[in-house]
Structures are given as C-alpha cells and as structure tokens.
TrEMBL record, chain B:
Residues 4-244 form the ABC transporter domain. Pfam families: ABC_tran. This is ABC transporter ATP-binding protein. Keywords: ATP-binding, Nucleotide-binding, Transport. InterPro entries: AAA+_ATPase, ABC_AA/LPS_Transport, ABC_transporter-like_ATP-bd, ABC_transporter-like_CS, P-loop_NTPase. GO terms for molecular function: ATP binding; ATP hydrolysis activity.
C-alpha cells in the first residue's frame, strides 16, 4: 500500500479487499480441491490482478479525495461479496480447516517454520518494492504524487502509471492474504472489512510514507504496542479499555509530533 | 514556416470568452511575445496549446500537418512542445536533480520499470543545472529553494526536454537582475539553436529586447500583431495595455 499511498500519493483504502481475495482463494482451494498452497498463491495473485485491473481502470480517472472515496466504495463492495456469496465463501460462517503449507518435504505447520516462510515472502516483497522505487518508474510515481498535471505535460500518461502501481500493490496484498489464511487456518469476512484497510493505512502512515523500512517499522509498532500494553498493570476490570485508550493516545501524539511518520520522507 | 497555428481558437469560462476565435501563427525559430493586460487570455492560450485546458472551439495546427481540436497534456511533448507555468509547479518533495531526471527518462511504464540512472541522463541533468547555476543544490529538495531558484529550476526542466517549442509563461516575474540575465541568455541561446520560443511577459523592455514578433491580446481577442517596435507604438495597444 505504501507504493500507492506513499510513493504515488493516492489515498487508497481497498487493500484489505485484495488481501481478502488472496486469503479466500487459498482457503477455498486448500479446503475444497487438491491444489497446493503455493499454486493457490499464484491463482490468488492472478484473480487479484484481474480484479484490481478492472477497479484500477475506474480509479485511475480520479484524483485526490475522489480517488479515496472510490477505493472506499470498492472495499465495501468486495466485503459484501465475501459476506454474501455464501455458496463460495460460507459467508459469516467462515472457512475453517485451512492447512499449513508443505514444500520440498519441509512442513510449515510449526509456527517457527511458518515465520521463516513469512520472512522469506517479506524479503521478496521488500526487494521487489525496492526495485520499483529505485527505478525511473519510482521517480515518476513520486512526481505524480507531487503534481500529476505537471508531470503529464512532460509526456507521461499518468493513467497507466497509476493503474500499474495499483495492480502491483494489490498483488502483493493478495500474497499476504494467502499467507494469513494458511497461518490462521480459519478466515471469515470480518478480517477484510474497510477498517482493516484503515489499519494498514495507519501502519504505513505511522511507519513513514514513501519509506519501505517505515512500512515494516509501522507494522511492528502497531502490532506489538497492544501486546506491550498488557504488561503495564492496569486494573483487570478496565485493562482492555485502558489499553485501547493508551494505544489511541500514542497514535495521536505521534501524528501531532511526527506527521511524516517514524522514518517517513513525505506527509499527506 | 509556422510551427504552431491557431485557427478560431476559443475557450469560454461560464460564458466569459477567455480566448475568443483567436487565429495566430508562430514562426519556427523565432521568439514570439504574447502580451496584454491581466485577464486578456495569455495564460489561457498557453494552457490550451499545452493541453491543460480543453479547447471549446477552433483548432491548433502543429508543423502545418497535425490538426488538433483536442489536446491531452501528455501528448504535447511528442509534438516537441514544453512549457513553464505562471505559478511555479515543481515536484516539491523531490530533489533538484530528480526534478530534472524525471523528465528525461522513459515515458512508458514498462521501460521505466527497468530503467536506472545512466551516465547520459546524469550528464544531461548536470549540463542544464550548471547552466542555471543550481548544480551545487542538486541534492536539496525543490521545496527548500528560493522563489527565483524555483523559477530557474522550472526553466532547466524544460531545457532538459530538448524540445522544439518552449512556452515560457512569465519566466522573468519576481527574478533578481542577475537571474533575469541568466534567463535572457538561455532564451537567446535557444533561438541560436533555431528553437521556437513563445514568451508571455509583462515587461515591455524585455519584449522589445528579445522578441522578433509579438501578439497583443485583449479580452481574449487579438488586438494587434507585428514587430515590437511597430506594434508597441500603436495607439490601441497603448490604450489597452498601458491604459493611457
């Protein structure tokens, strides 16, 4: 999502839906067919490429707030599909019994092995993103973020650039979704609603827009912070609520004093 | 030979004729001035020629061949046209160097994906930044430059395009005398290279000094045209432009 929001300056909240497409593709294929985990990732990515291409074609015509509202709408539509296409997704009942992967005799059933697998994918995604951001394409994306009309005058058809980066980032979200489904072994639509996209957005803003290391740092911060707050010693009857309050206050303070995020280069 | 012609070109904003059936021709290799009072349609004309505003009527003819009634911004560089903006539009949170490099690299998504800096690009960027005296500031973000430096960087960005036609919209506005000399020098050098320059400018002294031919606009219409020394003596021009 940082490629779209941080580098290209397009405020998108659709990525939980693409994450959901990857998760549902893997979940359905692993529980209802003989397709393995890794081919299911490939199929999830293909399905996401097609979906994001169609969505991106519409979105690429928008700018600014209209773009953000469009992505809001598409996440809502895809969430409604996950929830209501019960013959395929089992709707709110979710899909249980998703197996952990196995490759070349290595079983990723244990959490440690799965961590290694997830880190490998993280490394792959990081270097793919790095390749993009350090190429001329990355520079054009930043220019679109700064002034789309001005860069267009220099011969760039920005519609294609916006579309391509949207598709690439959607495919990355789908891969994360496949890993999530296999790790948790159960998915239901609640994991792919709009608020999940907002959470991913908070991660990249907090970590730092247009900074790939910032995305990782933001994820670590927002995932680990609630866990750390467990050890603060709030009274048991209000501990959960207090943790939420402290969590919220920390986020507000960070945005007040570090609007560009922890290690960001750009602020919205 | 006319490199750009407009034929009955028109643009309206809520019934106001910003450009009203304007027919002009810009000679290749010349410095052509567009002058007129504020609101006379000069910048609207540049925006129409560069595809930043849709044309409401008439057409633009490029090189006597391409007849266009609809221009998209990304198309103009393929016709060899580039421009600056009345209000400077840089890529603010990118470095000075990146502001240049971004306009000299591949235009297609696929090619740009696999393209990295090359010595050719670096040399070209260095050449134009040296010319305007901003090479030392290449690592700074554009947003941190002074107003005059921002104006110069915008001009450098057009030079890097190696275009045939340069549309300069008030390039001297707000510049110190030293910087004005640099810009005048660049415009003269472009003319020596047989490039075409369209200069929207309020400074009559500069218009007299630089332009081969001028068009005077008033309320979207063409009021007068010709060599500066003749046109600027016309009573109608003096009344409309100088209010005397």
């Amino acid at each position: 999502m940082n490629l779209v929001v941080g580098y290209t300056g397009l405020l998108s909240v659709t990525h939980a839906a693409f994450y959901g497409i990857g998760a549902y593709t893997t979940a359905i294929l692993l529980t209802q067919s003989g397709v393995g985990f890794f081919p299911s990732i490939v199929l999830g990515v293909i399905l996401t490429l097609i979906t994001s291409f169609l969505i991106g074609l519409v979105l690429s015509k928008f700018k600014g707030d209209y773009y953000a509202l469009g992505t809001f709408g598409f996440n809502t539509i895809l969430f409604a599909i996950f929830l209501n296409w019960q013959s395929l997704t089992r709707g709110p009942l979710g899909i249980p019994g998703i197996s952990r992967p196995e490759l070349f005799g290595i079983n990723f059933a244990s959490n440690f092995n799965f961590l290694i697998l997830a880190l490998l994918f993280l490394g792959l995604m990081y270097f793919a993103s790095r390749f993009i951001t350090s190429s001329s394409l990355g520079r054009v994306l930043k220019a679109i973020r700064e002034d789309e009309t001005a860069i267009a005058v220099f011969g760039y058809n920005t519609l294609y650039f916006k579309l391509v980066i949207f598709i690439i980032s959607a495919a990355m979200a789908a891969i994360a979704g496949s890993l999530f489904a296999s790790y948790i072994t159960f998915i239901d639509p609640s994991g792919f609603r709009l608020m999940e996209s907002v959470f991913i957005l908070a991660i990249i803003i907090l970590g730092g827009l247009a900074n790939l290391r910032g995305s990782i740092l933001g994820a670590l911060f927002l995932i680990l912070l609630p866990e750390i707050l467990r050890f603060v010693g709030f009274p048991a009857d209000i501990a959960a609520q207090m943790r939420q309050v402290v969590y919220g206050v920390i986020l507000i303070l960070l945005m007040l004093y570090r609007p560009q995020g922890l290690i960001g280069e750009y602020k919205l | 030979m006319k490199i750009i012609e407009t034929k009955n070109l028109a643009k309206r904003f809520d019934g106001v004729h910003a450009v009203d059936r304007l027919s002009i021709g810009i000679e290749k290799g010349s410095i052509t001035g567009i002058i007129g009072p504020n609101g006379s349609g000069k910048t609207t004309l540049v925006n129409l020629l560069s595809g930043m505003l849709p044309i409401d009527g008439g057409e633009v003819v490029i090189d006597g061949v391409q007849k266009l009634t609809h221009i998209l911004p990304h198309q103009i560089s393929f016709f060899g046209i580039t421009r600056t903006f009345q209000n400077v539009r840089l890529f603010e949170q990118m470095t000075v160097l990146d502001n240049i490099l971004v306009v000299v690299t591949e235009r297609s998504v696929f090619s740009s994906f696999f393209e990295k800096h090359t010595k050719y690009h670096q040399k070209l960027a260095e050449e134009v930044l040296q010319k305007i005296g901003l090479w030392e500031k290449r690592g700074q973000l554009a947003v941190n430059l002074s107003y005059g430096q921002r104006k110069l960087l915008e001009i450098a960005r057009t030079l890097a395009m190696k275009a045939e036609v340069y549309l300069f919209d008030e390039p001297f506005a707000g510049l110190f005398p030293e910087m004005r000399k640099i810009v005048s020098g660049i415009i003269r050098e472009l003319k020596r290279e047989n490039k075409t320059i369209v200069l929207v400018e309020h400074d009559i002294g500069l218009i007299r000094e630089l332009c081969d031919y001028i068009f005077v606009m008033d309320e979207g219409k063409l009021l007068a045209e010709g060599a500066p020394e003749h046109v600027l003596e016309k009573r109608a021009v003096i009344e409309a432009y100088l209010g005397e």
